[in-house]
Amino acid sequence: MAETETEKPRLTEDEVFRALDDKALWGAGPWQDEPDRVEFRHAGMPCVLQRSPFYGAWCGYVAVYPLHPWYGADRYEIDAGEDVPVSVSYAAHDDDLVTCATLRGESSDRYWVGFGYFGANDYGPKFAASLHVMGVNSKCFPYPYDHAAALGARSASVYSLLFKPIYRTLDVAREALEALAEAAKERAK
After folding, report:
1. Which of 27, 151, 158, 182 has the fewest Cβ atoms surrounding its Cβ within 10 A?
2. Mean pLDDT by 10 residues, the chain (189 residues)
3. Cα–Cα distance between 180 and 47 in angstroms, integer?
4. Which residue, 34, 46, 37, 35, is CA-closest to 180?
């Protein structure tokens, strides 16, 4: 490089992810019409759905309290049962990651059990946008994303099932969290 040329400053990964907090930069997709956080109760259990700050995919959490068999358990020890369509990938005491405004005034001694849609077959729109911004071309995380085409491809071949991730919508995440809440309620008996 000649001495008169200046090199463009390269963004760090952290700077890229902070810049991509604006969903408009993630491209078109179902996430554009969804909120980033939802709090509710299901089966009497406090529930929170919120986007992963890194992937932009949904994470779901149900709160359990002291005396519940899941309280304090390692995430690998929690068997939610066959009726729950997700694996537990998070288990921790109340912290800054999961806070729930609807629980103000209730006991703060709660333990969150949850999951995140950022596995091999899950599409994270923020992650895909970050790869695009950094100049990485990924067949597994296409940018822009075509949700209808991804859903169609998933049923077309085994290859697509393994290598074409799908964005899990708010409705899918809510259904999974409701199943987890029902399992938590059942285990509390």
Report:
1. 158
2. 53 70 88 94 93 91 93 93 91 70 67 89 87 75 77 56 78 96 93
3. 10
4. 46
DSSP, res 70: T
CB 183 within 8 A of CB 81: yes
Query: Any idea how long the chain is?
Result: 189
160 near 64, Cβ under 8 Å?
no
Tokens of 167: 């964005």
Q: CA 104, CA 119: separation in Å to the nearest integer?
A: 32
Residue 5 within any structural domain of the chain:
no
Give the count of beta carbons closer than 10 Å to the beta carbon of residue 32.
Answer: 11
Give the structural domain span for 112.
13-187
Tokens 């068997």 found at: 79
Which residues pair with residue 46 across a beta bridge?
41
Q: State which amino acid sits at residue 161.
A: L
pTM of the model as a whole: 0.83
**Domain presence at residue 97:** yes
CB 86 within 8 A of CB 132: no
What's the gap between Cα 112 and its chain centre? Answer: 15
For residue 84, the one-letter residue type is V
**Residue 7 tokens, joined:** 């090199």
